[in-house]
Structures are given as C-alpha cells and as structure tokens.
Amino acid sequence: MSSETAPRRDVITNLILGSGPGTYGITGPAGAGKSYTANWLAREIRCSVYSADYAFIGTSEERKLLLSQKHMRSVDSYKDAANQFNWWDWGAILSDLESLQAGIPIKVSGPYDRSTGEYGADLDIPATGTLLYEGAIFGPPFLLTQLKNIFFLCVDPSVRFQRLMKKDLGRRTFNEILARFLLTEYSETLYYRMMLEWAEGKIVFIDELTGIPCSKPAFPSELFIPLHVTTPSREL
Fold first, then answer.
1. Partners of residue 205 on adjacent β-strands
2. Phi, psi at 155, each rounded to 5°
3. Cβ(56)–Cβ(115) under 8 Å?
4. What is the pLDDT of residue 182?
5. pTM for the whole structure
6. Pick from 127, 129, 128, 134: which is nearest to 111 by CA?
7. pLDDT at residue 171 is higher than 90
8. Long-range Cβ pairs for the range 115-121 (8 Å, 24+)
9. Residue 111 above 70 pLDDT?
C-alpha cells in the first residue's frame, strides 16, 4: 500500500462500511488516483468496480482525428468537440449500473482501456451488495441519482500533472501530455461546476495530504484549451 494514499483509502473504507451497501462514486480530475483507489477498495471490502471509461466512445486516434477536423472548421466547433461530456455512452452506463444494482452480473463488451487508447477484451463484472462507480465525469443527473455518496479526491494540479507525465512520457511527447492535460482540465472543471449543484449533499471531498474530508476545492474561473496555431512562413 502506498503511504501517500493510505490515509484517504482508510477514510473512504470506513465511510462506506459505516454507510452500508449501495453504489458509491469515486471521482476527481485526471491523475487524482481514482482507478487505483477504487481497485484497492474493491479488494479491501470485496465489492465490484465499474469504470465510466468502459463506455468511452471512440479510440484515442479517432478522437484525435475528430478534434483535428473540428479545429480546422472553427474555434467554436473545436470547443464544442473538446467538451468531453459528449464522449461517453451514458445510456449504456445507466443500463449496466441498474443491472448490477439489481444483483445481475454483466459482461462489458470491448471496454475502452485508457492505458492503450483502444478497446480491450470483454470484461465480466460480478454483482455485489456494494458497487464502486469510478470516473472523472459521471454523466447527467439521472446517473448521479444512482449514487449513495460521491467521494471526490482532491489533489493539487501540479501533483496530478507529474503523475500523468510519469505514466505517459514513454509514449507521448511533453507537448502532447500538456495539451491533453489542459483539454481534460477544461472539460472536467466545466462538469464539476454542474455536478456540485446536481449532487448537492452527496459529495464528500477527501484531501490527499491528510486523507480526511475537507471543504470543496476552488475550481479555476478561467479555463484554457490548447490550440495549434500555424505560423505563416516568411519569404527571405
């Protein structure tokens, strides 16, 4: 167990065990440690994990192509495509969650794998009394109503970026990692502002340093989307 994340995992474990069976959300921005935390909790309390990323629409290369096409059309078109809220099949996620909540095991056909950017092998998920739904973006209000509580992992952006650098530097350039980080921050911050209203009273913010519940983080008021600007050549 990592000493860095042990306190928050212990706190979340105790909160779930104290609250009893149900469906709980594990969320937070890119690099917050959602998957790592959820998978550890699943082993510790013997529950199931369902990731929103299983229902990601399109491979990494397909989304890069879409963004490039939208970028060439107009900045507004690019901004709309860059909003990652539109990148998941929320209906499929709702269907899967409702089956698991009803005690019906499911098979996820070709789940998306963030580590490869491609679709992977079919995945069988057992139905247990406690289900962890993890992801950076949880979807519309009708999905949030399925959750008993939402644990929001609060991690400083600089720490999260360093984690993503460590994970991706072998297969992406620094500029690519930075652009992906800014793009993701844009979408996630837009979503969290809405989620705070949709799920008021359900969210427990967990501070990474202390591992204890804390006040909600201050989301930046200004957001940035990386744009590729072509520099015109100059004749000598």
1. 152, 214
2. -135, 135
3. no
4. 87
5. 0.87
6. 134
7. no
8. 117/59, 117/60, 117/61, 118/59, 118/60, 119/59
9. yes
| Contact predicate 171/118, CB 8 Å | no
| Nearest partner of 6 among 220, 235, 209, judged by Cα | 209
Options 1.10.260.40, 3.40.50.12780, 3.40.50.300, 3.40.50.1450; which CATH number does 6-213 get? 3.40.50.300
Longest pairwise C-alpha distance within the chain: 73
d(CA 196, CA 218): 12
- Whether the CB-CB separation of 137 and 88 falls below 8 Å is answered with yes
Structure tokens, 118: 């491609």
**What six digits make up the tokens of 2?**
């990592």
DSSP letters spanning 27-78: E-STTS-HHHHHHHHHHHHT-EEEEGGGGB-S-HHHHHHHHHHHHHH-HHHH
pLDDT at 204 over 80: yes
Q: How far apart are CA 55 and CA 96, in angstroms?
A: 10
Distance CA 143, CA 191 (A): 14
C-alpha to C-alpha distance for 218 and 137, rounded to whole angstroms: 18
Q: What is the pLDDT of residues 65-110, one digit of tens each?
A: 877 887 788 877 877 777 788 889 999 999 999 999 999 999 999 9
Q: Are 124 and 40 in contact (CB under 8 A)?
A: no
Based on its alpha-carbon atoms, the radius of gyration of the chain, rounded to whole angstroms, reads 19
